[in-house]
Amino acid sequence: MNVDKNIKILIVDDNENNLLSIEVALEGGGYSFSRALSGREALRVLLHDQDFSLILLDVKMPIMDGYETAELIYERDSLKDIPIIFITAHDYEEAAMFKGYSAGAVDFIRKPFNPEMLRTKVAVFAEIFRKNQLLKKQEERLKASNEKLVMLNAELENRVMERTAELQDLNTELRALNLSKDRFLSVISHDLRNPLSSILISAEFMNKQAEKITEKQILSLSGIIHKTAKEILQQLNDLVDWALKQREKSKFTPCKLDLGNVIDQSFELLNSFANQKKINLINDVKADICVNGDEHMLRSILQNIITNAIKFTSIGGEPIRVTASVLGDEVEIRITDHGMGMSAEVIQAFQDLKDSKSELGTEKERGSGLGLLLVREFVAQHQGSIAIESKLGYGTTFKFTIPVFVEMDVADY
């Protein structure tokens, strides 16, 4: 029979004949043995080799008996799991058995021992040891599997977090693209519709009054059509450039702008619409005020607000006035009309950055409803603020801020 090297038995007895007889009785079981002729020698063996499956310990030994030896063995935590069977020549007296079990014994064998009884008892503990070893291995494998599962779970969580972050980034990008699309359409709707209306009005007048129109009127109207068409083309070019910048996620490009000139340019595009409703546009901005802004965005802000002012002012109404004042490092621009005014709900929707519902103007003019939202976004791009003062039936004042342009001195570099 092959020796099971995992089953190691320490035999302790002060009589070498007893050691030999025990080994002979158990040699058919395939165990490996170590010997000790005293309790002290047994402790020395266990000091160097603790990997024993069972200890067969004689009770009656000189200097240190089996009970004392067992107590000293079990004082060490690393040895507490080794079962001890006491071998005694005494009867199984209750007091002796109690002392043995108190010392840590798991069983007793009486001398002279019955070989078959010895083999049976040792085999039982050997089998228990094997099963415990198997359980330990299974526990180790289970522990390793759990650690691997924890690691895989952590990796999975990290991947989920990474994918979630990627999806959030994609959703943010998608919302930005949708917003850019809405902005682009809104600029087309608000900034190009009225200049085109001006061309249509002039062309329609020329068409209907072809027989009565004078040469001077033809020159005037054709001049309006030509100039407005050029402005529209420039606006379209600006829009295409702006759309490309949005797609490339580039920032807006602020530069030095003469505020009065930008307002005049906006007025030129809106004069036909204002004249149609017999409303004057007044630029009360001082000539020396310059802002640091994106020209396209600033013109879009002005044209959207002024277009709304014209839209909600009755024919022949009070002039629409644009004023500005420098407040520290900002310029506050105010656009005031005396039209229909805005309800608290419309103002709140604007402040909450919700999609605004398009209202009909005094002459049933329609809009896309995105103009004011576009204004707010463009002002925010300039790190500015915007506010509305309005009362139904009395008019509206839009106030927004744009950074003032500051000349950089060479000494500042």
From TrEMBL:
Single GO MF descriptor: phosphorelay sensor kinase activity
Domain of life of the native organism: Bacteria
Annotated keywords: Coiled coil, Kinase, Phosphoprotein, Transferase
Domain Histidine kinase: 187-406
A GO term from the CC aspect: plasma membrane
Modification 4-aspartylphosphate occurs at: D58
Enzymatic reactions: ATP + protein L-histidine = ADP + protein N-phospho-L-histidine
Gene3D superfamilies: 1.10.287.130, 3.40.50.2300, Histidine kinase-like ATPase, C-terminal domain
Top EC class of this enzyme: transferase
Assigned EC number: 2.7.13.3
Response regulatory domain span: 8-126
Coiled-coil intervals: 135-173
SMART domains per record: HATPase_c, HisKA, REC
Name of the protein this chain belongs to: histidine kinase
